[in-house]
Request: fold
Amino acid sequence: DARRQLVLAQKKTDFVSNVSHELKTPLTSIRMFAELLQERRVSDPAKTADYLRIIRLEAERLTRLINNVLDFARFERNQQHYTPRLVDLLPQVESLWEAQAEHLRSAGFEVSAEMVAGPWWCLVDPDAITQILLNLLSNSEKYSSAQKEIALQAIAKSRVLQISVQDRGSGIPSGAEEKIFESFYRAHDSLSNGIPGSGLGLTLARRIAREHGGDILFARRPGGGSVFTLFIPLHEPPSAP
Ligand code: ADP
Reply:
């Protein structure tokens, strides 16, 4: 019992320092770029646009982190509920990918997508599905290596939609394939590699997927890297009124 308490105390300390680090990084760049703009030291309009884009992206990163922490707390208290509705997920995933692909390209990634024809009728909370995909894409970006390449693939098999995010990043050390879904677990030590993270992204992504009757699975990508696949049951199309 004492040992379990000790492990828990260590996990809490790591979590607090990981989250503080993850909050601090975007806040520092938001403050720095806002100051530069406020002092009117940048006269080039392209630079101004670039700084504003960074501020927006970093603010989005903060929102994502805070949403993850709040949702995690709600799950822990059994207070996380979704309002599923019958939606065609294809247009939503397409527009999410459009925005993310543009961001990834400007960060030096080679991107590609292959999606099965729609409609993809699913009984889901659409925002929750977006949250899962953003968590997976942000991980593929964060844990990338020299070969910066991300592919999105969506297929339908046995009435299940499978959306996978495939990268050429650092991969998952053997033995950690299931642990990465545990809360607070980080396979690549943040202190040694400086990549910010809370260890909650995959825990939440899997919980949300399971709440929707689906799941998230990890696989090694042939040739190196990772594949994270979101499984969501497909639904009958809405009946005509
Ligand atoms: P974090 O906030 O640390 O990114 P996650 O729960 O999203 O937390 O992921 C848990 C751990 O799994 C990460 O710390 C990282 O070590 C590993 N991981 C997740 N996604 C990837 C990926 N695409 N490539 C390599 N490692 C990954």
Remarks:
- The helical segments are 2-38, 45-76, 89-106, 126-142, 190-193, 201-211.
